[in-house]
Specification:
Elements lengths: L5 H18 L6 H5 L11 E2 L1 H4 L1 E8 L1 H20 L9 E7 L2 E6 L5 H9 L4 E4 L2 E5 L1 E6 L3 E6 L1 H25 L6 E5 L3 E7 L4 H9 L4 E5 L6 H5 L7 E6 L9 E5 L4 E2 L3 E9 L2 E8 L1 H12 L6 E5 L2 E4 L11 E4 L5 H13 L6 E9 L1 H30 L1 H24 L2 E2 L1 H14 L1 H15 L4 H10 L2 H21 L2 H36 L7
Parallel strand pairs: 1-21, 12-18
Antiparallel strand pairs: 2-10, 2-20, 3-4, 4-8, 5-6, 7-8, 9-10, 11-14, 11-17, 12-13, 15-16, 16-19, 17-18
Length: 537
């Protein structure tokens, strides 16, 4: 039937009013919208990088650093395996890193079998996209005394892939912590990351925040030798000399610190800037496992200093006066309010697994974005006017009905983009213009069907009913195929392509709604009220 029930009419009107309400905030400034009551819609269209300007950065992940760190860890594991506390030690010499292998010589060739057995315990399985990817280490004997522990190709590939994926997530967290929105962070190639942040004109702080490694660890200060003795070349085995980080005073002091990590920054669950004795500090809290390790470490080292190390620099080295059992503590280090807040942001976001090298750094000015917005508005207005004129000229009064539906189509489309917080890009504007062009397609199909029914001698009411009912299946088919195409573009495309896909998807849905509901409702009311003897189409 052509007519709608009362509740159906109420739902259609409610949806149209909701579209107008969600679109309205875009006609006010942000300052005015922020003063709206909480029950009023207040979301505005978010403009992408190409419309409001911003920062465009291309990073390369130094995956070789990840492999280097892994080889250092394997070296420590090999030393520990050969010299357990509860068994006879296996003496070795000339342990070194060679390419992607760790090599050493046994002092006594008779220890070969025991050494191979102990080292096999270090082998674990790599993880690939399909599950277990094979062993991560390969152990070989070389001659009478030599033993080689090598990373497998699967392990190297897995480490590099994991480092890039983890870097993307860390970069995303850090940018989000800055409060920026509509950020596009994508993987490019095997080891590159593209970052686009709209609205940012000074990229130096953004680059600094993203590119800081922020690798935090808690270690013991080595008191078996003085710093001066270590600087003269007598560094105890298992220790290293680290610079102190004194951001305010610029002093450069040295600390002799054990390499063994008591608790790593991976166990941090929260970090916040705060004040202690009037000085800015950073309060942190571990997870349960990290809290237990921290409590055990502080319990067994009361009276000794421990170092809080960030990116191989000692932030502070307080003395443990009593066990810290609550799983939380504070970092002090001559911070300013800004530096304490920045450190807290970096610690909350986590550590980068590898350094990032900037390959490309560009700033897109807002003037270029303004030109794009103006061009998009002009194209939208021209497209809308052209469609309206054509429909009126070709279909007369029924063309006006289609134009009313077209206006509500644009209102619902822009309102939906505002509510969903979708980012409007230049391709998105192209999607809106395209949606306007094809929005009246459904009306054209229905009107042409009505003309056929009129020529076949049907009454106006019967012709109108046939025009709407017999093209429904065609409308659904075309809409579904458009949505499938848009879904594929969204899944496989980048930021601008995704913006186009989102705009196109919403446009398809609103076009279907306005054609099936609004046009049909207006025509239905007109036919039943006027009772025309001839359809003016």
């Amino acid at each position: 039937m052509l007519a709608y029930s009362r509740w159906q009419v109420a739902v259609i009107i409610a949806i149209c009013l909701a579209g107008l309400a969600t679109l309205a905030p875009n006609f006010f400034s942000r300052e005015t919208v922020e003063k709206f009551p909480s029950w009023l819609p207040s979301k505005q269209l978010s403009l992408g990088l190409d419309l409001q300007g911003g920062a465009h950065l291309l990073f390369e992940v130094d995956t070789n650093a990840v492999i280097k760190d892994r080889l250092e860890a394997i070296t420590d594991d090999v030393r520990t395996a050969l010299r357990p506390k509860d068994a006879t030690r296996i003496d070795y010499s000339r342990m070194r890193v060679d390419g992607t292998s760790v090599r050493f010589d046994l002092v006594n060739p008779a220890d070969r079998d025991r050494a191979m057995t102990a080292l096999k315990g270090l082998i674990s399985q790599t993880v690939s996209g399909l599950g277990a990817g094979g062993p991560d280490l390969e152990i070989k004997s070389e001659g009478d005394r030599g033993i080689q522990v090598s990373m497998t190709d699967a392990a190297i590939e897995s480490r590099k892939r994991s480092a890039v994926d983890q870097s993307i997530e860390i970069v995303r967290r850090r940018v989000d912590e800055l409060g920026t929105k509509e950020t596009s962070i994508q993987k490019q190639g095997a080891d590159r990351i593209l970052v686009q942040v709209p609205g940012v004109q000074d990229v130096s702080e953004l680059v600094s925040t993203i590119n800081t490694t922020a690798q935090m660890s808690f270690r013991m200060v080595d008191l078996t030798a003085s710093v001066d003795e270590a600087l003269r070349g007598r560094v105890p085995v298992g220790s290293e000399i680290l610079d102190a980080m004194t951001p305010e005073q610029g002093e450069q002091t040295k600390y002799l610190v054990r390499k063994r990590v008591l608790v790593s920054g991976d166990s941090l669950v929260d970090a916040q800037p705060s004040f202690h004795d009037g000085q800015p500090v950073v309060s942190f809290r571990f997870d349960s496992a990290g809290g237990k390790r921290f409590a055990e470490a502080t319990r067994s080292n009361v009276g000794r200093p421990f170092a809080i190390v960030l990116d191989n620099k000692v932030i502070s080295a307080p003395r443990i006066n009593e066990p810290i059992l609550g799983g939380s503590g504070q970092i002090s280090g001559n911070f300013t309010v800004e530096s304490a807040n920045k450190l807290a942001v970096l610690l909350r976001a986590g550590a980068l697994p590898a350094p990032l090298k900037i390959l490309e750094q560009r700033t897109i000015g807002p003037d270029l974005g303004a030109d794009s917005v103006a061009a998009g508005k002009l194209a939208t207005i021209i497209g809308t006017v052209a469609v309206i004129v054509f429909m009126v000229v070709y279909y007369g009064w029924f063309g006006m009905v289609a134009n009313i539906a077209l206006v509500f189509n644009i209102v619902l489309l822009l309102g939906a983009l505002s509510v969903l917080g979708a980012t409007l890009t230049l391709p998105g504007i192209a999607g809106i213009v395209l949606t306007i062009g094809v929005a009246v397609d459904a009306n054209v199909l229905m009107y042409e069907r009505m003309r056929e029914e009129v020529r076949n001698g049907k009454t106006p009411v019967a012709a109108a009913e046939a025009g709407f009912s017999r093209v429904m299946m065609t409308l659904w088919d075309t809409s579904i195929t458009h949505l499938i195409s848009a879904g594929i573009m969204f899944e496989l495309g980048g930021g601008p392509v995704r913006g186009f896909a989102v705009t196109l998807s919403i446009g398809v849905i609103t076009s279907l709604f306005t054609a099936v509901c609004i046009t049909r409702l207006i025509v239905s009311e007109w036919v039943h009220r006027v009772r025309p003897k001839v359809l003016p189409i």
